[in-house]
Design brief:
This is Zinc metalloprotease. Keywords: Amino-acid biosynthesis, CBS domain, Cell membrane, Hydrolase, Membrane, Metal-binding, Metalloprotease, Methionine biosynthesis, Protease, Repeat, Transmembrane, Transmembrane helix, Zinc. 60% of the residues lie in helices and 14% in strands. By secondary structure, it is α+β, with helices and mostly antiparallel strands. It has 2 domains: 248 residues, no CATH class; 121 residues, CBS-domain (Roll), CATH 3.10.580. Helix 3 crosses helix 5, helix 4 runs antiparallel to helix 6 and helix 7 runs antiparallel to helix 8. Bound molecules: zinc ion (ZN).
Length: 379
């Protein structure tokens, strides 16, 4: 993830801080600090323990306590992510890193297609950890309330532990909402995936996730809750991205380039005039051709290359004047179609010549791949 720095490693997993995290801690400290009387009343009510406010109420202390609660909360979020990661790793999934960002943590995993059997325990591990942390904080809040005899010190500790208890239990409950790609949504997807193909399950879970995102967004706008609006935004975008990623990878998982490429490659010679290429595009409806010189692939010419010339020059130009030369990106017929799609997306190209033993044997285009996707989807 860009804009993040590594702060250490735990169980061999790199832990990173995203730049937004550094902004959110002062913000949280300020929000928590400025609402301190409200939250002290609330915690007193829930725990039925009187809280001494001598220290809590003086000077900058509310904001210092705000910073402590915020940092500890993010530590709890980190433990939550760690729980997901360790269960994943125990099931053979490689963990690249855990990054703490504005609204929580993200564990980056090496995984193209989720296995429902692994996903269920992996997804549920995080919320259960939050519940556990909530219960521990709850017990600590009570213990210090009764054990520590200095009321101002006891007051500070009950406040901090009580606050963390409530936040962790909220985290537990919120994460279990079936709003894919949040944890509850992953549980739902795993449950659905036992009953239908993975991409269908993901699509349904992602549609439900988007519905939740819209509801969160509306609530966020009406309650002026900036954080809820950001969460809604991330859920909406994340649900869509993951659904299309899973659909593509699932449907194309066993398909090779050789199976779907066009074998009749229409190529052009470097000396062909551009007007001839344009005529060829009209008649064949292909918008790009490999350029072959005495049997060797020396370049590619596409409509985009021709667009770069002006009408007057075009009359006098040949293929070799405008074609894209080095490096020519090619792919082997045994490569997977998902790999071809990845290269096309990364290089922003629409077609790749398929080459075997130095000879061009076919061509694969983005349109071909999308057509295969559509055909596969009807089964
Ligand atoms: Zn989680």
């Amino acid at each position: 993830m860009n804009g993040s720095l590594e702060i250490g490693r735990i169980f061999g997993i790199p832990v990173r801080l995203h730049i937004t995290f550094l902004l959110v801690i002062p913000l949280f400290a300020w929000i928590i600090g400025s609402q301190i009387n409200l939250t002290v009343d609330f915690i007193e009510g829930i725990f039925a323990i009187p809280i001494d406010r001598t220290i809590i109420d003086s000077g900058f202390v509310p904001y210092i306590l705000g910073a402590i609660v915020a940092l500890t909360l993010f530590f709890c979020v980190f433990v939550h992510e760690l729980a997901h990661s360790l269960i994943a790793r125990a099931n053979g999934i490689q963990i690249n890193s855990i990054t703490l960002i504005i609204f929580g943590g993200v564990a980056s995993m090496e995984e193209t297609l989720p296995d429902p059997k692994v996903e269920l325990p992996m997804a549920i591990a995080g919320p259960l950890t939050s519940l556990g942390l909530g219960i521990i904080s709850w017990i600590l809040a009570y213990s210090v309330g009764f054990l520590i005899q200095t009321p101002p010190v006891a007051g500070v500790l009950v406040y901090c532990f009580g606050y963390l208890a409530i936040l962790n239990i909220l985290l537990f409950a919120f994460n279990l909402l079936p709003a894919f790609p949040m944890d509850g949504g992953r549980v739902l997807r795993a449950w659905l995936a036992k009953r239908m193909p993975l991409h269908r399950a993901t699509r349904i879970a992602s549609d439900i996730g988007k519905g939740f995102a819209i509801i969160f967004g509306i609530i966020g706008i009406f309650t002026f809750s900036f954080i809820l609006i950001i969460i809604a935004f991330f859920i909406y975008i994340g649900a869509g991205q993951e659904s299309s990623m899973v659909t593509t990878n699932f449907l194309l998982q066993d398909v090779t380039v050789g199976e779907i490429m066009s074998r009749e490659v229409m190529s052009v010679e470097p000396a062909l005039p551009l007007t001839g290429v344009i005529r060829l595009m009209y008649t064949t409806k292909h918008l790009g051709f490999p350029v072959i010189d005495r049997g060797d692939l020396i370049g590619i010419i596409t409509l985009a290359d021709i667009h770069k010339t002006n009408d007057i020059d075009r009359e006098a130009m040949q293929v070799r004047d405008v074609m894209s030369r080095q490096p020519i990106i090619t792919i082997s017929p045994s490569a997977s179609v998902t790999e071809a799609l990845r290269i096309m997306t990364m290089q922003n190209i629409g077609r790749i010549p398929v080459v075997e033993d130095g000879r061009i044997v076919g061509i694969v285009t983005r349109t071909d791949i999308l057509t295969v996707l559509e055909l596969k989807d009807i089964n």
